[in-house]
């Protein structure tokens, strides 16, 4: 029996928005506290019969009382069979690669979250992984890479950080499955509000909970979610992932788990407003003389728009990149001149951020030099437009 059943008749048939807002109806087990209390216990006492009264033994093994709630809610939002919470998005993503059999071949996007590319480069070969990088928006290239040799896993991220290149998730999933490979999708940027990768064939979905799920720039967290229909390969993968988390301990702390659940409650209204503002900004700056191109899948002129419109619903999330006209240093100065956009890395919070990715990533970076990446928050769109226009003008004036 879940805590909720004692207090409220709760059903998982409620829509995802309802499940998020009420945290699946969970209550403090004794008091009915809304929201549930935080337990910091790392270990649990056995009774005189040497039984564990609540089934919990040790924090690293099973988590604590608040964990099942956040995992069930995120599994529910994705339409998955279950979820595991991790201490970061990277802990979640690398778990998938770490539990593959030694010698596995993996096909990953050439453009994706920088940290995962870096981990695969630094540690992949050393762990016996053969890592093949492909342009995931080129289905012929994906098919060629996957059929060239037995492949254990195909990984996708759409739209992909930081160029917002769109991948046809269903088509890549089909290619992966035809070759007997597992298919993992990083759904951090679209969130389950705009995209549900299990409906497009994913076996496992990954999130950086640090970003939109938490949404308040004060928690680092991650998730893996398992596809709803059971297959032998999925069951084996999930068992290995559960065991990996138990034995290596990349589990989120109880306080952060509480904060994360609080953030998730407002995911839907945040995403709706953030995506609407991002769309408005993308349209505004696409027509701006000091901007050479706006990368945003919500623009009808964006190369990924047709596919994105097919696989995303209700918006295109809050990430866009501006390619600034003029020589590339001007884009860096645009970031320097912003007053409202905060010059900071990360994404998905309530406050808008601007970042010159090339400078952040350093000389190995494949990020276009003339590009600033924007993470749109909940500010008034007119204030954001005015801030960027002023920064663009000032940066351009310095070149005259
Ligand atoms: C931030 C991010 C990650 C890594 O998550 P952390 O919580 O920072 O470890 C992975 N994928 C994407 C798309 C991200 O934006």
From TrEMBL:
Catalytic activity: L-methionine + H2O = methanethiol + 2-oxobutanoate + NH4(+); L-homocysteine + H2O = 2-oxobutanoate + hydrogen sulfide + NH4(+) + H(+)
Cellular component aspect of the GO annotation: cytoplasm
Keywords, in A-Z order: Pyridoxal phosphate
Entry's EC annotation: 4.4.1.2
One GO term of the biological process aspect: cysteine biosynthetic process via cystathionine
GO molecular function: cystathionine gamma-lyase activity; cystathionine gamma-synthase activity; homocysteine desulfhydrase activity; methionine gamma-lyase activity; pyridoxal phosphate binding
Superkingdom, taxonomy of origin: Bacteria
Entry annotated with the keyword Cytoplasm: no
Residue numbers spanned by region Disordered: 1-33
Biased composition (Polar residues): 1-11
Positions where N6-(pyridoxal phosphate)lysine occurs in the chain: 211
Record-linked PANTHER family: CYSTATHIONINE GAMMA-LYASE, TRANS-SULFURATION ENZYME FAMILY MEMBER
Family listed: Belongs to the trans-sulfuration enzymes family.
Protein name: homocysteine desulfhydrase
